[in-house]
Write a structure and sequence with these properties.
By secondary structure, this protein is of the alpha/beta class. It has 34 helices and 16 strands. Helices cover 55% and strands 11% of the residues. InterPro entries: BglG_antiterminators (IPR050661), HTH_11 (IPR013196), PRD (IPR011608), PRD_sf (IPR036634), PTrfase/Anion_transptr (IPR016152), PTS_EIIA_type-2_dom (IPR002178), PTS_EIIB-like_sf (IPR036095), PTS_EIIB_2 (IPR013011).
């Protein structure tokens, strides 16, 4: 439909008047973009009804007036305002398909509807999507975007496409009433892809002897249209990686040939895999029993199965990420093998069958819903393979044995030791070794029987079946959640060394307290917290007026490191070459020195450029950002002559950050006296 402003513009054009985008925007107090949107709407109506659309000559807009316009005004009289459902559908189109997100001010201007009305519609939409676990999150300067399970979001996208494709099949006068919805639809969905999808389905049916019809046709068509239209948006998730086996199938090759013939272009493997996965689902049971949604959102069926198995074995396996991933990489390939009569052979799985392991009965119960849904029967070999995953999960989640862990850090030695200590304080772990990132390719293969790899950086490769978990250099709540998924639960509360020594001192005479402390540390390594040294002690002692600076702003991260490094040079802590080393390390390894948003710890290795142990503190009012996007306005640079000093400084700093709100408090400080006041307030000096 057209709003009253668009009808006024159309009337003027029919009378033979000429106008410009600027004249329209000035007359109605709208932006040039909105003016162009009005003309696009008018053109859409004219095109549907068989009229010649507006012509543009150097931004002057006019219309051929030797046409009979009586029909258009009859239809426009029938047009009504956008209903709530219409507005919600437009909001869905923007949320689900616009990469920029939904901006309330922008959509309010485009639809000529108040922000209050849009906000009410957003509330309704938020409640509707919330039922499926989808949240509408607002991001500054971008707008609203949906967040939640990718499968659930995809299903909502498919349902929306289905609904609007039905609208587009309506009569001309009905389509005009829905003009604005269809305008947004064709803004995101190319018409040529609708035709390509139709042709693809016809060819697939012919080549692969399929019959795609009935209640699933529209869903299949809509999903294929999404895949074709948003090439590259889908196929990058973990669920998609689990389907890569399809790239080696006959179905994949046939689909590749059909699609590339239609599109006259090379098609990305990710999209071909998703298409092949969809066609595989059709060949298994034609998506009867309303199984389409379960096929494309397999996370749901796998989690249901794990939940059912958990109840049977009376052990909670629902948070076991290893089990979920194992089943994710097995269920669909298993159904493909069943359909194509392919058998698996593995002596380990055969042992479960020969031993009549009770876990097989558990799997038979857990797999029933999937069998009924897709009309398949899992043979005993496939049951045994699933049983292998479940048996391992039960052992992981009931065993009390200490997990063997390799810790990989992108930071230096000191930071790694601090993280190692933090892990030991929170968990009963056997940290077999702490490796720097650059050594893992040569060193990691030498370690056997490792349960888990913990890393503060992204690793490029997999290392056998050993799971890799990325954690923060300073442990956060989301790290605890991640680790719990791998059966690693927080250990019992640790004993405070300070309190323990106080009790011993009050009840005995100590001849050698240092020796006692060392022996207690060795014997009670994983059960004790070494809190004898007060937080902030080292930094309080070595920070002074000579090595603390303040700045309003710096040009970039290099200037910040240079300024803080030069303080070390001025105080004869390092030579100028040390500052260059700090910058080179960031260029080589990235923003690893930003240990927490807001604070960076520039430093280099122990070398001839270090004259003595020392620190410098630069506090910048405006945060600067590194290439990775991480930012800092506090730069605590340091240099040490030995590893003990290095570790002590980092221990001190990390404790200040985690326990004393160091970053937030220090960011407010603009002169040295305020820094002294902070230390006096937080600690007994």
């Amino acid at each position: 439909m057209l709003n009253y402003k668009e009808i006024e513009i159309l009337n003027s054009l029919i009378k033979g008047e000429k106008c410009s985008f600027r004249a329209i925007s000035e007359k109605y107090g709208i932006s040039d973009r909105a003016a162009r949107y009005y003309i696009d709407n008018i053109d859409y109506i004219l095109k549907i009804l068989g009229y010649k659309i507006t012509e543009k000559d150097r931004n002057i807009i006019f219309l051929e007036t030797d046409q009979d316009f009586s029909k258009i005004f009859e239809i426009l009289k029938k047009a009504q305002k956008l209903s709530v459902d219409d507005r919600v559908n437009i909001l869905k189109l923007i949320l689900f398909f616009d990469e920029k997100g939904l901006n309330i001010t922008k959509i309010s201007e485009e639809l000529q509807i108040s922000r209050t009305t849009i906000k009410k519609d957003m509330k309704l939409l938020s409640e509707e999507l919330g039922k499926d676990g989808i949240k509408l999150n607002y991001k500054n300067n971008i707008g609203y975007k949906p967040e939640g399970n990718n499968g659930e979001i995809l299903i909502k996208q498919i349902e929306l496409i289905e609904e609007i494709l039905e609208l587009s099949k309506g009569k001309d006068d009905f389509k005009i009433v829905k003009t604005q919805i269809l305008n947004y639809f064709y803004k995101y969905i190319k018409e040529e892809n609708i035709e390509n999808t139709k042709e693809f389905i016809v060819e697939v049916e012919k080549v692969m002897e399929l019959n795609i019809n009935g209640e699933s046709y529209n869903k299949i068509f809509s999903y294929m249209l999404i895949l074709l239209n948003f090439d590259g948006k889908y196929g990058n998730s973990q669920d998609s990686v689990s389907k890569k086996f399809l790239a080696h199938t006959d179905e994949y090759e046939k689909i590749k040939e059909i699609l590339e013939n239609i599109l006259k272009a090379t098609v990305k493997q990710e999209m071909l895999i998703e298409m092949t996965d969809l066609i595989t689902g059709i060949t298994i049971n034609s998506f009867e029993n309303n199984s389409f949604e379960d096929w494309i959102n397999e996370e749901l069926i796998i989690k249901k199965m794990i939940s059912k198995v958990s109840k049977i074995v009376k052990t909670d396996l629902t948070r076991d990420e290893i089990l979920y991933n194992g089943l994710l990489y097995h269920i669909k390939p298993a159904m493909y093998r069943i359909k194509n009569n392919i058998q698996i052979t593995n002596s380990v799985f055969k042992e479960l069958i020969l031993a009549k392991d009770p876990v097989l009965n558990v799997v038979n119960e857990g797999i029933k819903e999937i069998e009924e849904l897709f009309g398949v029967k899992f043979p005993e070999d496939e049951i045994a393979l699933i049983g292998f995953h479940i048996k391992a999960s039960i052992e992981r989640n009931t065993s009390e044995k200490t997990k063997k862990v390799i810790l990989i850090c992108g930071l230096g030695y000191g930071s790694s030791k601090v993280l190692e200590q933090s892990l030991k304080e929170n968990y009963d772990l056997d940290i077999v070794d702490v490796l720097p990132y650059y050594l893992i390719e040569d060193t990691l293969p030498n370690y056997k029987n490792i349960d888990l790899i913990l890393s503060t950086v992204d690793l490029k490769h997999k290392y056998g079946d050993v799971p890799v978990v990325k954690i923060n250099p300073l442990l956060k709540e989301d790290d605890f959640v991640k680790l719990s998924k791998y059966g690693i639960k927080k250990g019992n509360r640790k004993i405070s060394m300070k309190k323990l020594m106080k009790i011993i001192k009050n009840n005995t005479t100590m001849e050698n307290s240092d020796k006692l402390i060392e022996e207690l540390k060795q014997e009670l390594e994983n059960s004790i917290v070494d809190d004898l040294s007060d937080a902030g002690t080292i930094l309080r002692e070595i920070l002074n007026k000579e090595n603390v600076r303040f700045a309003e702003k710096v040009q970039d991260w290099k200037e910040a490191i240079t300024k803080s490094g030069n303080i070390l040079v001025e105080n004869k802590v390092v030579k100028s070459g040390y500052v260059e080393e700090m910058i080179k390390l960031v260029k080589k390894h990235g923003a690893y020195i930003v240990i927490e948003e807001g604070i960076a710890i520039p430093h280099a290795g122990i070398s001839e450029n270090v004259l003595k142990t020392g620190v410098s503190l630069l506090i910048v009012k405006e945060k600067v950002f590194f290439p990775s996007g991480r930012g800092a306005n506090i730069f605590l640079s340091f240099a040490t002559i030995n590893k003990n000093d290095h570790l002590n400084i980092l221990n001190d700093l990390f404790e200040l950050i985690t326990k004393y709100n160091f970053i937030e408090e220090i960011s407010k400080i603009s002169k040295y006296e305020e820094l002294e006041k902070y230390f006096r307030k937080e600690f007994v000096c």
